[in-house]
Amino acid sequence: MKIVLFGASGMVGQAALRECLLDPAVDAVVTVGRSPLAVNDPKLRHVVHADFGDLSPIAASLADADACFYCMGVTSAGLTEAEYTPVTHDYALEAARVVGGTYVYVSGEGANAESKTMWARVKGHTENELLALDRPVFVVRPGFIQPRHGITSRTRIYRYVYSWSSLLFPLLRRVAPKYVTTTEHLGRAMVALAKHGSDQRLLRSDEINRLA
Q1: Number of domains in the chain
Q2: Could you report the per-residue pLDDT of 158-168, keeping only the tens digit for each?
Q3: Taking a C-beta distance cutoff of 8 angstroms, is the pair 161, 77 a contact?
Q4: CATH code for the domain of 196
């Protein structure tokens, strides 16, 4: 199985990459980014590309994929909708246009195309457009994600939140299972979707954990 992965340097992307490399059913992983990854593995290949709005120049490297994981994302803090939309929406649709196979889009708990909150509205619109495509598309909506195996967020405020809230994770998992998962479970669930699909096309944290 060949998987194309966007956003491998982020927290969710690191999780997806780790589980891809560990799973014997995955023969090849192609990551796409603006700079090389500091990860080496016999089945890993990294494609350096700057313009995610046009993947045509690297389409040959992404061909024959069995699945595409879109994990790219930016925090919406301080951004206008026009600044937030390209990474969240435009690049995701371009990846779906160029890369074949099962498509897994990493969204977030609370995404809703009718929301008055900007990030939720943009993600909700993206979900709807992807799910309308004539191909296997799955949306994962994690809530609180506990980092595992040394995986960290590139966003400083997120690193701080994950650090102090780690002690509360067992309690959160008990009282709010629909909103809590781990990087390990999220990565495993994405690989499971690539291998077997699911009867649900939109998965929240409890469904992510069950699938993992």
Answers
A1: 1
A2: 544 555 555 56
A3: no
A4: 3.40.50.720
